[in-house]
Each structure stands twice: as C-alpha cells, then as structure tokens.
Write a structure and sequence with these properties.
Elements: E1 2-9, H1 18-32, E2 48-50, E3 59-68, H2 75-85, E4 90-98, H3 104-107, E5 108-117, H4 125-136, E6 142-149, E7 152-159, E8 164-172, E9 178-185, H5 194-205, E10 215-225, E11 228-230
Parallel strand pairs: 3-10
Antiparallel strand pairs: 1-3, 1-4, 2-3, 5-9, 5-10, 6-7, 8-9, 10-11
C-alpha cells in the first residue's frame, strides 16, 4: 500500500533541512507504530520519499510525501497517528492512497510561492506595479548558477524568464511588506528559487530590497502534463 500525504511546515521548523525532515519522519513512523516497508540489503531503510526539497528558511503549506506500507491503513487513521507524534509546526493536512508510479521529484514541475519584502523605492502599490510592468517587458534576465562538473562547481549563466510561470502583485500588508505571488519552475525540468527571483528583480528594477527581510512561503506545487499545469493526484 502506498499513501500520498500533503503536509505543512511552518514556524521555526522552516529551518529544518531536507535530511533533517527525513530523520524526523523516520523517528515519527516508529513512534506512531506505522507498519512502514523497509528496503532489502545490509542497510535497510524505510521506504518513503519527500518531494522537491524546500529552500532552507522557507515555510510551506504544501509539502508532499509518499509512504510505502506493509499493510493497509485507513488514510485518515494514518494522518491522525502521525500528527499526534509530530512536533508543532508540521501537520498532515490530507492523505490518500495512490498507485506505485513516477517519483514525486519527477512529477513536481512548478511551485507557487508567496514572497514578502520591503523596498525603499516602491513603498506604494502603484509604484511597484509600474516596476512589474517594466519587468514584463524584459525578454531575458540572466543569473549565475553553480553547476557541478566532476568534482568541482563551475559558474553558468541561466536565463530565468522561461522558468517563471507568472508574477502577481497582491499589495502591501499591515507591516509594510510588498506581497508577490510567483509560479516558478522546480524539479528536473528546471529550477528557480524564489530568493533568486527577488535578487534578479532587485537588480533589474533597482528596487533597493532589504534581502535580509525577505519572507517566503510555498503555497502549493503542481505537475506539468504536456504543458498543462495540474494538481498532484
């Protein structure tokens, strides 16, 4: 039996790395008495996989995990038992049975983010919307990414425009933060981190963003089936 779960990761737990999350869930399965399946061999490990790693320091309302079990469990019961064993800040919000197929990493192609930041040059909604109009007119925007070549990492220039689905300005919150929602490529077909987008926008539009005050939250992730963006099934 394989269960696909959707969970949130908020608060101080946003600073847990992908490896930390693997360790946390491994302990949680044991604590909750979940009959998880283990791999064969001399060093067996629990058979579960977490979707595309979240950038460190990013909250999320939509993390996904596939768990392979040795016996059937009601999905609602699985979620209840796991949630009772998890720390505050991580909670399964939905769970359903799925078939064995492509990995989550290969399925997930887009991430939808909420990005909040403060800037000196566009502290009014109308001014920042004008800046976004300028951004939409750009045909290419290059950033430097590191690529592993053998045992060393080399710099390469990447045009990020094809990695952006959309950018929508949502206004200014009560604390003076500009709010932007952005759909960005993620996974095997291309990847753009939200902070890379912010740095590029700051450079190209001369916004004078305080990069130490950027708050990022992943709202959801999506699959891409022949150019059509779809929710995970």
């Amino acid at each position: 039996m394989i269960l696909r779960t959707k969970y949130i990761k908020v608060g101080y737990l946003k600073y847990l790395s992908h490896l930390d999350m693997v360790r946390l869930f491994t302990r949680t399965f044991s604590k909750a008495g979940i009959p998880i399946k283990f791999s064969d061999g001399y060093n067996p490990h629990p058979k579960f996989s977490i979707g595309n790693p979240l950038p460190l320091g990013t909250e999320s309302l939509a993390e996904y995990m596939d768990v392979e079990l040795t016996e059937w469990i009601e999905p609602a019961d699985f979620a209840k038992r796991i949630n009772e064993a998890l720390p505050d800040g991580i909670k399964i919000t939905s769970c359903w049975e799925t078939e064995k197929g492509a990995s989550l990493t290969s399925i997930i192609a887009w991430s939808h983010y909420e990005i909040r930041f403060v800037t000196k040059n566009s502290d009014e909604a109308s001014k920042f919307e004008d800046s976004l109009d300028q951004w939409d007119k750009l045909s290419e925007v290059f950033i430097t990414k590191k690529k592993k070549k053998g045992k060393i990492k080399v710099d390469r220039q990447v045009d990020i425009i094809p990695l952006i689905g959309n950018i929508i300005y949502k206004g200014i919150d009560e604390d003076g933060f500009n709010i932007v929602n952005a759909l960005l490529k993620t996974g095997e077909s291309g990847n753009l981190k939200p902070i890379e987008l912010v740095v590029a926008m700051d450079r190209e539009l001369q916004l004078d963003i305080d990069l130490d005050m950027v708050l990022i939250k992943r709202l959801d992730v999506f699959a891409d089936e022949k150019g059509e963006i779809k929710e995970l099934a």
